[in-house]
Amino acid sequence: MTKKTYARPLTIGALAGVALLAVGSPAFADTEVDEPSQFTSAFTVMATPDQVINNDGVATPGQSGATGTFTFRINSDQEIICYDIRLEGVSGDYQSPAKTATHIHEAAVGKPGPPRIAFPNPAPVGDGPRTSSGCLQGPFTTGVVANGADTGTNFSLKQIEANPAGFTGDSHTVDFAAGVVRGQLTSIPVGGVDTGAGGTATGELSGWGLAATAGGLGLVAATALVVQRRRAAAAK
User: Fold this and answer.
1) Where along the chain do its domains lie?
2) What is the pLDDT of residues 161-170, one digit of tens each?
3) Where is the signal peptide (predicted)?
4) Distance CA 30, CA 7 (A)
């Protein structure tokens, strides 16, 4: 498996989470890796500006009309997370005290929380859609320090699998430092289902599995409809 380390420049700005202190040029541990052959879980995020919360837990809407779609596939045995992120309706450059401005935070609905994983920012910066995809392997770092340790220290992907609703995906820009969009992680089927990027999880689908798959896809479709309605409302 080919691996390469990556590092992102540190920028200055507010971060939706706890009061944190940024530090310069740490030795980042995350590595970009090939996609694994199997996944233990999968999650989606439908991120919108109305879900953004600032450091004090106060609703701080992001950019009107912006949306974000995050898809995460996890192999927690190998501590690998594969990501497909798409931002639309977002303008301006990124800004965050973390090493990138696109994260998974440990934060429940309506609550702030620290970043646990920092992803490469979707590109290109401009008026069109921005995308980012790949796979990262832990141990994870964010470039942000709280209580003397990086907020990614000792974080495991098994924590997401145990409580996906306790995690959120977001991105931050110069004009919307608290967050341009944000949304909670929602579990989607992975067992025996084609993951869509060359890998499948093991196991055959039972009748229950088929029902779960249909339910999961229905949930994604319903969430997408909510995003479309929010877009339409924002455009009025």
Assistant:
1) 4-235
2) 999 999 999 9
3) 1-29
4) 8
